Amino acid sequence: MSMQKNFIIGLMLFALFLGAGNIIFPPKLGQLAGDELFIAMAGFLITGVGLPLIAILAIANAGGGLQTIAGRVHPAFGTIFTLVVYMAIGPFFGIPRTATVSYEIGIIPFLSESMASSSWPLALFTIGFFLITVALALNPAKLVDRIGKILTPVLFLVIGALAVKSILSPMGVIGQPQGDFTTHPFFRSFVDGYLTMDVIAALVFGIVVINTLKAEGVTESRAVMKAMIFAGVVAAVGLTLVYISLGFIGATSVDAIGLQANGGTVLALASKVLYGPYGSVILAITIISACLTTSIGLVSACAQYFEELFPRYSYRTFVLIFAGFSALIANVGLTELISISIPVLLMIYPLAIVLLLMSFIDKWFGRRPIVYILALLATAFVSIFDGLRGADINVTPITKLLAYLPFYDQKLGWLVPAIVGALIGVTLIPFSKKRV
What we know:
This protein has two domains: 3-330, Hydantoin permease; 347-436, no CATH class. Helices cover 76% and strands 0% of the residues. The chain has helices spanning 3-17, 20-33, 37-62, 66-70, 75-92, 94-107, 113-116, 120-137, 143-168, 185-192, 198-215, 221-251, 254-257, 263-275, 279-309, 315-330, 334-361, 369-390, 396-402, 415-427. It is globular. The two termini are 34 Å apart.
């Protein structure tokens, strides 16, 4: 396959990643980080770019999707965990969020106050949004042409317009850090990177890239791995440039627009400052294009997975099911979706990270399930209570005990238990079953 084709597939992967969370979280991070932006952005880039790239490499290395990797723990765990991840990144949170962010940032600025406060404009928009998603997702073989060649250049153009203008005509000086960013900006932004959902998105999009390569005639395992690595690097570079640009816009916007409640508002107001009345149009194109590409990719990925899991039903059927269900969930609203998704992400993100990292080194311990199992059990014990705490569910006796763990205040208390669990698993290898 030609270098040009590889590059276009990389652009497609970048566009699939660049959705709602990728655009709304960096500007808010920039506002809160202030002159700690460099350190904060480093933490955000690890979870927002580095770990997704590792996930793509893990999928390429495994030669299959998430279930292939998770199945190394146990076949039942492989199926259950993969289902949880697909439902979280798909119809429960990820896909509906693409529509709600598009509406609240791209459409509401053009509505009257009375229309914006009504529920029917959101309902109409979500119907139209997911009808377009269905139309473009029904033929997964054409995702490269529709996303990589058309929608991605539009994204680069409009985001570039905002970024260049903010550099040439800054809205103000970079302000002072706020809240947690004054004491531990790196760890705070590291956890904020969870909200992009990109690590678990990479686990989902990996199979889309594999199937795209197969449709292009690339089937030999080494060639598939090489192409996926190239696509992952292209996507990672693109995401890095976008995050830094949006973070800088946020960091220089405080003097002009004040501290805002969320990144969507930051971008909406900053766009007007930078481009006047045309700013809202530029922002609307940016948001809707980005969210649409992610919606198409997620619906397609979920449909492909469920078609494999339940071959009795067609890919087309699952596209319609996931798009329809997501349209209903999207009408809950953006704020509610984010508040519900945070506890779930705090529970499953650490498990995904540990699983991915271990997949690179499992040859060292003979791919023995006992090592995976103990590492993931230790991780799950901490991450489940992190999720409960994120949902404001009182588990004081346990959290007091967990508070003694290193990095617990930074929501990284699972790190040391995961390492200890893996090491204990290694010592038990002589008494365990051989690799699965």
